[in-house]
Amino acid sequence: MKRLIILISFLVLAVSISTAAGAKTWILKYGHVDSPMMTADDHVGGVFLKNYIESRSQGRIKVEIYPAAQMGNFRELVEGVQLGTLELTNTTVGGMNQFFPQIQVTDIPYMYRDDLVAEAVARGPFFHELRDAVLKKTGNVRLVAIGNTGRWRSFFTTKKQIKSAADLKGVKMRTINSPLQIEMVKYLGGNPTPVAWGELYTALQSGVVEGTKNAVSDVVGKKLHENLDYLVMDEHAYMFGFWWMNSDWLKSLPEDLQKLVIDGVQQAATLKINLNKYLEITMAEEFTKSGGTIYVPTAEEKVTFRAAKPVIKEWFVKNIEDGQLWFDKLESAVKQAEAEVDGDLSKIVK
Predict the structure, then answer these.
(1) Which residue, 170, 300, 174, is CA-closest to 234?
(2) CATH number (domain holding residue 281)
(3) What pTM was estimated for this model as a whole?
(4) Closest to 151 in 3D by CA, of 114, 183, 198, 121
(5) How far apart are CA 186 and CA 127, in angstroms?
(6) What is the mean pLDDT of the chain?
(7) Is residue 337 situated within a structural domain?
(8) pLDDT 10s digits, 333-350
């Protein structure tokens, strides 16, 4: 009897090992342009995602991280997701605008009054409509989460302090490869110069550009502040972070793993939103300690920057297919978000 029990136990163990060895596994390749450091928000999000998904899938999904633009720039990363050479990436508007130019509406300057409103827009129905439209247009690129990639964009310069829009006249300002951002810099009097993220340090060092539109955390994290002296906190654009996933890969997963992956990516997006608020504070201190000057414009000076909003809105409506439709959708979402935020605040102080 004892021998029989041992034999049965051995057979059960053998079957268990065989089943585990033969279980289907998946690889999730995540590519981003940021440095492989734990002060780089794209990478922190990836490290969290790797730990979260691998542990909770019990090894059924392995997450591979490809930092520092190993898999290409923003556009190439999105192409990789579309083709299936990548399963996941995280980009700004610059990753998708050449595939779906309507996404540039989210970058119209001075659309969001503060973080709370921008975050409420991110949670609302506008981005559900955007996800469906992008998937239909690209065929295989699915928006699975909305986060942030640096909080707010502002103007950094090398040679002079910018205080009002007039000070931007003639400044060679780096932009991402987004027609809307290029038009904005033109309107404000600057000389827009698209430069890939990985080439920006050298472009600033050599004088190809004299400034850049970025977040404080991006600039200091990439050590761009070694070539930049001034920052004006005009906060012209909230830096939405778009998490793009290969739709076929996602749908190939069992239902439990689909839910796990989406949950993990959305938690990574939330982590990055909060991380960037912390990084802005700490890296602004580092910027000033290294000799940089930070200027917060007065109400009158802010008006000179905000004059760009209606002009760029008009450009978007005239030059982008269905531009008016998408602007109206976003404007409605912003108003709804403002009402939601104001309602919550009024309850607190009631």
Answers:
(1) 300
(2) 3.40.190.170
(3) 0.90
(4) 114
(5) 28
(6) 93
(7) no
(8) 999 999 999 999 999 988
